[in-house]
Backbone:
């Protein structure tokens, strides 16, 4: 029988962990946290009151990509289909949580697990070097939980932001590279774009990049740019309290806005829903969207992502931020699936509900009006 684990199962889970793994074991404290506080589900295979296996799935806050974090089967039950049953149960659970993909890591010397997951339809798509305590590397695997969906991904190369405040330039670089394969994405261009597009003051520290600055930076490089804002207010003024800072930000952005009008860049006010974004995407445009990071990372700061594809349920994005402190690699930020209704909720920032979308086109293309 497969059921949800409870706190009373912790002693049995810790004992099973000790029998199955010589290193990288989950502790009693970690199991308690995962069962009581984490955004995770633990399923156990129980037979006559004896726990013979478990599978642990972690869920992301805002995206629709779940992670099969750990699976263990007692030696007494191996070869009896217990692991397959647990994986199938985990997939059903993840699908019921509106997840599009299930991902996991497998030791490169664990060929038995590799064969198991490959037989269940998982594909190898990446590698972690020096991943385990004994420095063994891991293969990364994933499986689509909605095989009827066929997202058409634009070939947007990935670039990881190198500084906390350069998500805008990193997202813009990815969009430009998709339209101009000759573009060189490197830190020099990242910082050059930041210097051009910065809004001077943000919540603290270095300034971030607003929609006006990013639009101008793309236009100066010959790309077609269509900018849509939720309303006519100056963006991001509510991110600072000081009236002096507000005055500087207002002056800088009014100057940028005057330049936008002088260049004749399309500037619209209103909201682009998923259908609007997809129409522009299908016409050859690459949307760069401002979101609130709270629904993904639990922190309230403006954040730029680039859209890489659509299907009937999800919008896929490259997120230039990689949370290395949480054990992520760039693989976790590539083609992140986000439910369309969730994307609409996160595509706004701050108390003012700022909405901002840049759609980039190749130089010879004009965006839809």
Residues:
């Amino acid at each position: 029988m497969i059921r949800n684990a409870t706190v009373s199962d912790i002693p049995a889970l810790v004992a099973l962990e000790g029998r199955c793994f010589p290193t990288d074991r989950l502790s009693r404290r970690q199991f308690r946290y995962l069962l009581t506080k984490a955004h995770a589900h633990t399923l156990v295979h129980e037979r006559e009151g004896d726990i013979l296996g478990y599978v642990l799935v972690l869920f992301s806050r805002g995206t629709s990509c779940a992670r099969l974090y750990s699976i263990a089967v007692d030696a007494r039950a191996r070869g009896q289909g217990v692991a397959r049953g647990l994986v199938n149960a985990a997939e059903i659970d993840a699908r019921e949580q509106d997840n599009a993909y299930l991902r996991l890591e497998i030791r490169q010397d664990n060929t038995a697990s590799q064969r198991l997951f490959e037989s269940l339809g998982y594909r190898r798509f990446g590698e972690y070097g020096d991943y385990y305590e004994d420095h063994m590397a891991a293969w990364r695997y994933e499986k689509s939980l909605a095989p009827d969906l066929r997202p058409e991904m634009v070939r947007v190369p990935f670039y990881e932001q190198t500084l906390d405040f350069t998500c805008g330039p990193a997202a813009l670089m990815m969009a430009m590279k998709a339209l101009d394969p000759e573009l060189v994405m490197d830190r020099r261009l990242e910082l050059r774009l930041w210097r051009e597009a910065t809004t001077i003051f943000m919540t603290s520290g270095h300034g971030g990049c607003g929609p006006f600055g990013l639009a101008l930076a793309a236009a100066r490089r010959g790309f077609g740019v269509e900018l849509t804002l939720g309303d006519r207010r100056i963006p991001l003024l509510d991110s600072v309290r000081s009236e002096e800072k507000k005055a500087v930000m207002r002056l800088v952005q009014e100057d940028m806005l005057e330049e936008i009008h002088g260049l004749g860049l399309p500037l619209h006010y209103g909201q682009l829903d998923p259908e609007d974004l997809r129409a522009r995407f299908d016409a050859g445009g690459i949307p760069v969207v401002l979101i609130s990071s709270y629904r993904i990372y639990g922190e309230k700061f403006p954040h730029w992502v680039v859209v890489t594809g659509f299907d009937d349920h999800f919008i896929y994005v490259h997120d230039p931020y990689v949370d290395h402190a949480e054990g992520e690699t760039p693989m976790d930020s590539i083609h992140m699936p986000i439910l369309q209704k969730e994307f609409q909720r996160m595509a706004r920032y701050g108390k003012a509900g700022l909405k901002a979308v840049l759609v980039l086109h190749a130089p010879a293309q004009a965006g839809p009006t």
User: Anything to note?
Assistant: Residues 243-263 form the longest helix (21 residues). The radius of gyration is 23 Å. The CA atoms of residues 55 and 71 lie 4 Å apart. The domain at 167-361 is CATH 3.90.70.10 (Cathepsin B; Chain A).
